[in-house]
Amino acid sequence: METLTLKLQGMSCAACAKRIETVIQSVPGVLECSVNFGLEQASVRYKPQTAPLETIQKAVAKAGYRAYLEEQDDTESDRAATLSLKRRLIFGGVVSLILVFGGLPMMTGLSLSWVPPWLHNPWLQLVLTTPVLFWVGQSFFTGAWKALKHGSSDMNTLVALGTSAAYFYSVIATVFPQFFRTQGLAPDVYYEAAAVVITLVLLGRLLERRARGQTSAALRQLMGLQAKTARVVREGREEDIPIEAVEIGDIIVVRPGEKIPVDGRIIEGSSLVDEAMVTGESVPVTKEVGDEVIGATLNKTGSFQFEATRVGKETVLAQIVQLVRQAQASKAPIQRLADRVVGIFVPIVLAIALLTFTIWWFLTGNLTLATISTVGVLTIACPCALGLATPTSVMVGTGKGAENGILIKGADSLELAHKIQAIILDKTGTLTEGKPTVTDFVAVRGTENSNEIKLLKLAATVENRSEHPLAEAVINYAQKQGIELPLPSPEGFGAIAGSGVQGNVSDRWIQIGTQQWLEGLGIAMDGTTRSRVSLLNCQKTWQEAGKTVIWLAVDGEIEGLFAIADTLKSSSAQAVKTLQRMGLEVAMLTGDNQGVADAIAREVGIRRVFAQVRPDGKAAIVQRLQQEGKIVGMVGDGINDAPALAQADVGIAIGTGTDVAIAASDITLISGDLQGIIAAIQLSRATMGNIRSNLFFAFIYNIAGIPIAAGILYPILGWLLNPAIAGAAMAFSSVSVVLNALRLRNFKPKLFS
Ligand SMILES: Nc1ncnc2c1ncn2[C@@H]1O[C@H](COP(=O)(O)OP(=O)(O)OP(=O)(O)O)[C@@H](O)[C@H]1O
Ligand SMILES: [Cu+]
Ligand SMILES: [Mg+2]
């Protein structure tokens, strides 16, 4: 099973997108396909063995479109397409202006002496309009034809039918004016209607193209952040090499003011680094030996050397770009609704148009009236703006998120986030910094004969293999007490999620973890020199102070006790307060002991606490809240949070957390600042509001325009919609949708609200 992104060419509206979707889906071996009209791409989940790429491409080509891989550089053909579009537009625009100008006296009913009468000559108009229809408007006819071949219809059908009806009616009136006169009709022509509609719809498409370019600007900006070269130390010499040539393990030198080329860990020197472009965090961060640096961030003050740990597609930046791409190409559920509406809308409009024509023709016998109203209905009903409404907002919204350090994986989570009613926060690494430090260590047998150091070394050796934040605390503490790195590898290492770790070091069986776990293994919780009671008392006091307590057992006997403290993130309490004020229920969920959990919860103002929950239990807690009928957001960082993140309606991972958590989540907060949750909810709300107003703009013209165009007001007020105005209204609806979506670019999260 593989997922593939194909660029598409030749789509003119949402109905085309739907057709390509159907075509690709019908290829055997394809499991899923979603086409994004705005981005002109398809994401396909398929089995490469049964459905080779060529088969998919052939199927798309047969339907009259082109599908190609992104790498087959598309900027060139894209630019050519834009240029050709512009040329056609200029021609169409000039002709439309001439026609409208020449038609002014007729349209306004005034005698305007400054309009030369020959401009209104129908033969001249015929000559001018013909290329507009068939060259400028070529794509509408080929599009309509494509649709017809599949027995379907789309917005091209509407434009093609509407404009050619106006055109051919006018041609007959030009060539055989007698025919009309004998029926008592004036041989009026509507060339300008045809030309204006074609030109305006095409203008809408050009603006669309522009908007698409602008919405992906956020992405291009992100990619543009990358440094082009890196200064690596190879064979003792510094040399500049292209960033693509950097390999994992390379030593890279960074000077003040330079961009950090790839991800890595500092091995010498220290500096302040501005990570705003990736994390959204504006305050520069101090980086010292051992700290991770992210590619594309800016080194401010010092100079340092670091070892490359991730290059190419693995870097944080590359992954962010990849994620945003995916999100922009994904479909919000509300979009599926819009697609379905387009699918049934066109046939209905065609039916209304037919009905309009027959009714007027029968009632009045007036062919002109019947034709004008039919042309009007066909043009004003075009649902092209409807196809634009959701994707444009989603694109701007996800791009905006990325700018603020919020990575949104799919349009569905962007849509759902503002509906979250209950939010569950993990404790360690989410509410707290996740950089715990050992504050106390008690060796049961006392400190004689460097017993303490021996124990610390055993503990650090086993913890060295754990990814848990607590492990790091133990190792750091051991180091501070003089234990030297690197540590040997433990044998038979095992991590028991939610309990602790174990392993064999120099033939001694080491276990470090919770009291419950060790007790459950039948280990007596009393030592030789200190009584069981006092050890447990020790634990109790520490826990009441909000410290995590872990026990160390050697060969099945308790030998030591660690107290580990973790500071709250500075933003945690404020974020919790804001969330509560926004009407959300905030709960805390932790694998840690109840006493510690309560102490921390009290500090940040959370009332509902679930403590001592094992990893699988965390998902069950999420489920429990869901069963209370709530839409649940879960925020976490660790491996132990992954199942809960996946279970939640919206899983939010802390970007500084583990890869597993990030993979299981829908949204990632890169900086780890919990205010990001609030920003994400606000962004979701703003985007959905934007989509709704887009749908309104897309629909209002059609809904209001169709009856007027059909001539409903004609018997009462004598009003009939001029087809040219219908065309303008339609083009305007596309334009207003795009402009409205771009308004979202002004989004700024309001924190501390
Ligand atoms: N590597 C480890 N070393 C020592 N103790 C551990 C280790 N892993 C887990 N434990 C023990 O198991 C407990 C539960 O761990 P778990 O990872 O489920 O939650 P947590 O990290 O404490 O908190 P949270 O769920 O808020 O992130 C820890 O509090 C600790 O006592
Ligand atoms: Cu349209
Ligand atoms: Mg955690």
TrEMBL record:
GO cellular component: plasma membrane
Transmembrane segments: 89-111, 123-145, 157-177, 189-207, 341-363, 369-390, 695-717, 723-742
GO MF terms held by the record: ATP binding; ATP hydrolysis activity; copper ion binding; P-type divalent copper transporter activity; P-type monovalent copper transporter activity
GO biological process, one term: copper ion homeostasis
Location of the HMA domain: 2-68
Pfam families: E1-E2_ATPase, HMA, Hydrolase
Stored PROSITE patterns: ATPASE_E1_E2, HMA_1, HMA_2
Key words, A-Z: ATP-binding, Cell membrane, Copper, Copper transport, Ion transport, Magnesium, Membrane, Metal-binding, Nucleotide-binding, Phosphoprotein, Translocase, Transmembrane, Transmembrane helix, Transport
Membrane topology field: Multi-pass membrane protein
Record function comment: May play a role in the osmotic adaptation.
Family note: Belongs to the cation transport ATPase (P-type) (TC 3.A.3) family. Type IB subfamily.
Protein name in the entry: Probable copper-transporting ATPase PacS
The species this protein was found in: Lusitaniella coriacea LEGE 07157
